[in-house]
Structure formats: structure tokens, C-alpha cells
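re the bet — no i am not wrong, look at it urself. input seq straight from the record:
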Amino acid sequence: MTTEEIIQQIISNKNRPHLNFSLKLKTEKFTDNLFYTLFDAEACVSKNIEQLKIDFIEVYRLACLIKDGSCEKIWESFLGKLPTLLENLNLDAQELFNNDPASNSLEEIYLAYPGFYAIAIYRLSHELFLLKTPLIPRLMSEYAHSKTGTDIHPGATIGHSFFIDHATGTVIGETCIIKNHVKIYQGVTLGALQVEKKMKDTKRHPTVEDNVTIYANATILGGNTVIGENCTIGGNVWITESVPKNSIVYETHETKHKTKRNL
């Protein structure tokens, strides 16, 4: 097979004519600029907002195959949400600072905590998800996933004062509902019991009520699974049924003393 024949075969098998990878790169740039606009004290908000609108229109037009003129309406609706989003993110940062003894300042939270960055991009992408923005919310969440190791689907519903410590390996599914003052640690999975395409429009992921703490590597599965308020879920547990409020769930272990024969 000649080089020309190979080239023609590759071209003929590229059967996604609208797949443009510049959309991914431009969405990542838009995401970074949005984050800096909200938090960087040196950023000129008015100037950045003008550029963000230009950038959003560009990525929207790449993402949306139907040119229906909805782009500017979505941007204006999203822009109107930014002040409230910033207030909620400041609550998240304060929750992290209040609960992590290793944190030395709020500035450290904003600059150095991957959990906060993951939450920030989730909240921003979630608003675009609610506005039925095509593809962009998922690209934003996957960008945060690549930077932090935290995978939060933009469709998840998360209340105020949310805390993710260490962040790496955390997975929160699309139909998950998390209420207020919830703290989770690395490796936690809030997922589905099974994955079938026919379940797309059903609630597949758990509900976590107020004031719940979930420790590292716990796995909680199922759309009917509810973790009641004020619960503490220990590390490494596997949960597929609801847990009543004010409960402690933990994995038992056995400790044996060494004998001379063991030494």
C-alpha cells in the first residue's frame, strides 16, 4: 500500500466532519480565563468579561451544529449567574479553610487546592449545563478532571459549602444530588449500580443529605441510595442501600498480636 493510498484510507475513515479539536483547546482557554476573572485580584473584570463573551461565542459556534442565534442569550443568562456563583464558591473556599487543619490561609485554598479548582469548574459548567449548552460543560469538567484527578459531571446537583480534600480519584455522577455542608475525601465514588444506555433519563446516582462526611475510597452506588443527614461514612466501605440519618458506617477489621512464631 502506497503512502497516498494510506492517506486516502485515513481520510475516508474520518467520518466525523464536525469534529474540530480546536473546540477543546479553546474551551480550556475560556475555562482558565473565567476562573482567573473571578479570583485573580490583578485581573481587570470589565476587560476580561468582554473577551470572555467573544471567546464563548467562538466555542459555542464550534460546538453547536445548529446556528439558531441562541448563543448570545445563553451568554447573557450565564453572565447574570456569575455574582451568585462567586458567592457560593467563596463559601466552598471558607468550608475548606474551616475544616482542613493543614490550610494556612484562604489564599492557599484558591491558589493551591485541587479540590477547590474542581468545585469551581463544576459550578461554572453546571450553570451552562442547565442552560442546555452543547458539549462545552462536559469539556470544561473534563479539563478540570485532567488537572485535578476529580471527575464531577456538570449535571450533578451540589449544594453550598462543599468540601473535597485531596481530590484525586473522586468521581461524582451526572444524577447525583449532594446537599449542604458535605465533606468528601480522595477516592470517593458516587456512582451508578449499573451502566446501560436505556437508563440515560433515570436517576442513577446517590443522594447525600446535609452535613455528611465521606472518607477516602468509599463507594456509594445507586439512584435510590440516600445517605441521611449527619452521617459519617468510613473509608473503603461499599454501600448500595440507603443509610438512615445520624449513622456511622465503617468497615470492621481484626487486629492480631504477633507471636514469637510470627517473628
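see?? The longest helix spans residues 71-99. told u. also The chain has a mean pLDDT of 94. so pay up
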